[in-house]
Amino acid sequence: MNKKIKTDAVDELFEAILHLKTVEECYAFFEDVCTVNELLSFSQRYEVARMLRDGHTYLDIAEKTGASTATISRVNRSLNYGSDGYDLIFHRLEEESGQ
């Protein structure tokens, strides 16, 4: 865990997010909390991470997502040396889908 972001306010934000129950609720909350560009950046990074994990090349990912190679590289660094947050989510989604 990155101690630079660990604050009571961030804890409260994450606790609030854990109470969202549907995709529609997520849209409502995140549209209020984030700008459109922030939300699109989050979703782009997630898509980049998924594609990297599935073995796609940087070129394929850049063409499909519009992400810069710098963004792809940062996401790749997070996958390889980060806090394993992406892996946690991907693993849970695989379990849920029975893969």
From TrEMBL:
Cross-referenced InterPro entries, in alphabetical order? Trp_repress, Trp_repressor/repl_initiator, TrpR-like_sf, YecD_YerC
The source's domain of life comes to: Bacteria
The UniProt entry, under Pfam families, shows: Trp_repressor
GO molecular function annotations of the record: DNA-binding transcription factor activity; sequence-specific DNA binding
Q: What NCBIfam families does the record point to?
A: yecD_yerC
Name listed for the protein in its UniProt record: YerC/YecD family TrpR-related protein
